[in-house]
Amino acid sequence: MSARAVRGWSWVHKWSSLVCTLFMLLLCLTGLPLIFHEEIGDLTGAVARPPAMPAGTPHISLDRALEIAHGVHPDRVVQFASQDESHTDAWYITMTPTPAPTADFVQVVVDSRTGAVLPQPPIGKGFMAVIESLHVDLFAGQPGKLFLGAMGVLLLAAIVSGLVLYAPFMRKLDFGQVRTDRSPRVRWLDLHNLLGIATLVWALVVGATGVINTWAELLLDHWQKEELAALLQPYEGQPLVPAAERASLQRSLETALAAAPGMKVAFIAFPGTSFSSPHHNTFYLRGSDPLTARLNHTVMVDARTAQLTAIPATPWYLLALRLSQPLHFGDYGGMPMKILWALLDVATLVVLGSGLYLWWKRA
Q1: According to its UniProt record, what is one Pfam family this protein matches (predicted)?
Q2: How much is the pLDDT for 363?
């Protein structure tokens, strides 16, 4: 590589790193507890869990579960109902003043066997809620997400430029050598390069999937407006289906599960909400193995008749989004994968911190 090319790549590496490093440090620090968010939630009691009962205990109908939730908040409507992947004996029912998207929501947790309302800590409060908001959007909503996405693009530029510079640099040294007999700055430079190349693939995966995740709302909005438009043409001009005219939700659930054998409910979006249409109960189903459990399968059921309307094909960009979410947090391979993700996260913190140190010493 020519000296001019080296200077050019060095400039890209220096400035892309400097601009994004503080934000990447924040994301790595907040991402560490989020890797173990399920375990932390269970330990702290931040999430309501149903008590253990004998296998085969009969379940109440979904209609009855929603009636119970309405009894707790009769002035609200149900937006969503979901089931946790590892705790399928409870319905987590989200209720709002109207079906329209809003930040004013409460959650009622109903034991799907006994119908008991389980105690639920306040949503969006506490340590983990603060950590998640910092990690996802810096408390700034969609603009915050897009800003962090831009920082992620700079991180990818820093990684690629660092890789380009690593090859000529290592011609002078053995692979992975850390010159402990030299000055602190040289030792930190060697450690920075060693950990950087060791975490290269992980950092690329997490950086790229993080960027994709910041576009989630925009991609879903595009899918709803463009991809679903053709499916909803027969309903064009029809108003929201009134609650009194809707068929049994249990029947709708059975229709959806029959259309996708072997799958389970992830969550249900009801008519008029942001993840459905004014005319459908939209079921997002998941598979049973570690990967397909995070690849939601969409089934739309007519809210008035409980008949299957469509199983929309998943476009490539939504497939990329759904794959990026488990890859980003490493939560699809059990505790060993989470521990590996945590160790790589800590190593990346050292890479970022040492990069700042090296710039400061050279400045």
Answers
A1: PepSY_TM
A2: 53
Is the CB of residue 128 less than 8 Å from the CB of residue 40? yes
Indicate the pairing of strand 117-118 with strand 308-310: unpaired
Distance CA 192, CA 221 (A): 41
Quote the CA–CA distance of 77 and 94 in Å, as a whole number.
Answer: 8
- What's the full length of the chain, in residues? 363
Helix axis angle, 184-198 to 334-362, nearest 10°: 140
pLDDT at 291: 63
Task: Out of 91-100, 160-169, 173-182, 197-206, pick the least confident.
Answer: 173-182
Q: Where are the domains of the chain?
A: 3-41+129-214+333-362, 48-120, 229-311
* Token output for 27: 């994301």
Percent of all residues in the chain with a pLDDT value above 70, rounded to a whole number = 93
Q: What is the pLDDT of residues 219-238, one digit of tens each?
A: 988 888 877 777 888 888 88
**Location of structure tokens 């707790």:** 72
SS3 assignment, position 332: coil
User: What share of residues in the chain are helix, strand, coil (percent, to 5)?
Assistant: 55, 10, 35
Identify the band that residue 308 occupies on the pLDDT scale cut at 50, 70 and 90: very high
Q: How far is CA 44 from the centre of its chain?
A: 21
SS3 139: coil
The DSSP H or E segment spanning 48 is none
Task: Please compute, for residue 76, the number of CA atoms within 13 A of its CA located in the half-sphere on the CB side.
Answer: 21
What is the Cα–Cα distance from 341 to 297, expressed in whole angstroms?
Answer: 27
Token output for 304: 């008035």
- Which has more pLDDT, 295 or 287? 287
Distance CA 248, CA 227 (A): 27
